[in-house]
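Lab manual, section 2.4: Encoding a predicted structure.

Procedure: take the sequence of the chain (618 residues), apply the prediction step described in section 2.3, and record the output as C-alpha cells. A sample record is shown.
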Amino acid sequence: MTTPSPTPADLPPFEDRTDFEDADRGFVAAFEPGVVEDADGRVVWDANAYAFIEGDCPETADPSLWRQAQLVARQGLYEVADGIFQVRGLDLSNMTLVEGDTGVIVVDPLVSAETAAAALELYRAHRGDRPVTGLIYTHSHVDHFGGARGVLPDGSRGIPVIAPVGFLEHAVAENVYAGNAMTRRAVYMYGDLLPKGPAGQIGAGLGMTTSHGTVTLIPPTIDVTATGQQETVDGVPVVFQLTPGTEAPAEMNFLFPDRRALCLAENCSHTMHNVLTLRGALVRDPRMWARYLDEAIDLFTFGTDVAFGSHHWPTWGTDRVIALMAGQRDMYAYMHDQTLRLLNAGLTGTEIAEELKMPPALERSWHARGYYGSLSHNVKAVYQRYMGWFDGNPAHLWEHPPVAQSRRLVDCMGGIDAVVAKARAYMDDGDLRFAATLLNHAVFAAPDASAATEARGVLAQVYDTLGHGAENGPWRNFFLMGAAELRDGVTPPAVDTTGSVGLTGALTVDQILDSVAVAVDGPACWEDHLVVDFVVTDEGRTWQVSLTNGVLTHRSTRSGLPTRETADLTLTLTKERLLGVLHGRGLDGIAADGDRAVLRRLASYVEDPDPAFPIVTP
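Recorded output:
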C-alpha cells in the first residue's frame, strides 16, 4: 500500500448528496468579504482562500477528503432550529447562538477573539444587536473557548459562563503546561502555514484550519457536575450530560428541550475522531465514549428533532439523529474492543493497525470515514492506553535516540548515498512507506544539512506523494508540512497559547506557578536553594515558592499566617502583577522585603521554550 487512501470499493456512494443538503439547510448569509483581521491589520482568517474547493477533485487530493473539504469550507450564518443559529466556516469550529428572553447565549466562541467577534457581528447583522447573556463551553479544547473575549470583551461581569467540571484544569494542562510542544505539532496537524490550494492545504477534516488571532479565556462561573443537571440561562432551559474522558477530559452534551435541539459537542461528528490527536493530548477512552453516546440516545433523542455539534453540520429528524449516534457509538466501541481482542492475542499496536478493518456498514458511512482521526493511529492509541509505549520486545526497551540510531543504521547500509539509492528503488516499486523510513534515517544520520541535501529533497517528494494520497486531513497536513520543513526549514507557529496574557490571565495562582515549574531547568539549579513568598492581595493568600533539588514547589496559606520556611524575598502584589513579575516585567511599584537578587536567580533558571523546534530534521 503506497498511500493511506482507501480503494474506491471502500467508499460510500458519491451520488449520495444528503450531507450537502444538510450543510446548506437554513443558510441565512455569508460572512463578507470573508477575511478577519486583528487590530494591527494582520489577517487571522481568510475564508476566501478555499474558493478553489468548489472545483473538481485534482490528482493531488484524495476524492473522499476533497468531498469533506467541500462540506466544511461552507461559511456563514445558518438557522438550526427556532431561535438557534450557527456561524460556520469562520474558524476550525462552529459558534452556536441561542436566543433567550433578553439576549443571546453563545456556545463555543471559536479559537480567536477576532473570529468570535466577527461571528457575533454576522449574527447581529441579521438578528439584531442582542447582548450576550450567557456563555457555554462544551469542552476544554482551545477552539471552544479561545475567542471568549471576542463575545464578552469585559469578562463575565455577572453573565453566567458554564462549563463541565474540570474544564479549567484540563484547558490549562493542554494549552499551557504542554502548550509549546502541542502548538508546534498543531502547525503540522492543521497545516495553517501551508499554501491553500489543490496541491497544498485543503482542510483538516474537522474544519478547514485554525485561525491565528488572540487566544483568550474567561473562567467558568457555573460548573456542570452531574448528568441531569439543569440550568436556565436568559429564560432558556438546558439539560446537561457529563461525558468526561471522551473527546476531551472535560466535555458535555446538552439538550435545549423547548427547542427540541441537542448539542453533541464534539462527541458525535461527521468523521471518525481521534482517540489520540496527532498534536498530542491525553489518550481518550473510546469505551466510555461509546457508552456516553449510547446513554445520550436514551436521555435525549425522544425530545430531539435536530442534533448539532461543535464542528460540521446538523442532522435533522429523530430517526436520523439516532442512526448517526448509534453508528458513531459502534465505531468507537468496535475499535476499542477489537484492539483489546488482538492485543490479548499478542499483537502489538503497529500490527493491529495493519490488520484491523471497520465493519462494512461503517466503512460505507461517510460519517465514519477517517478524515480527522484514522483507524490506524486510533488503534495504536488504544494499545497505548492499555499497554503504554513499550510493545514487550526487549529490543525496543533501550533503543538509541533518533540521531544515534540513524547514524548506526546508515553506516551498516553503506552510507547516506547508498541509503538514498535504496530508497529510490523502493519508491520505484511503489513502497513509499519504507522509502520514507530509509530517507528519514539518512536525514537524521547526516552530520550537517549539506550532507543530507539529496536525502532531504527525495524525502520531501515522498511526503508530497503520501500527502496527496491521504484521505485523512491531518495525515495530509503532516506529510506536506514535513516536506515544507525539509525544503525551507522551520516556520514558527502563528499562535502562542503559552504566552498569551488573554489565556494566562484566567489561570489560578496555583496554575500560574505550575506553569513556571515545568519550565525550570532542573540540572542548572540542582545545587541552589531559594524561597520566595508571594503575598497576593486580591486572593487574600500567601504563596510560598521554594526551589530545591531542581524542583520548584509551592503551597499557600491565608495571608498573615506563618509560612513553612523563612523567605529570602517577600513580594506583596496582585495576581495581575504576579503575572507581570513572572514574565520579567520588574518590581517597580511592588512592595519587596528581602534580597531582590533572589528573583533574578529564579528567573535565570526558567527556560523560554523554542516555539519553532524541528520535527523532521535533527
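Check your result against the sample. Residues 14-375 form a domain with the Metallo-beta-lactamase; Chain A fold (CATH 3.60.15.30).
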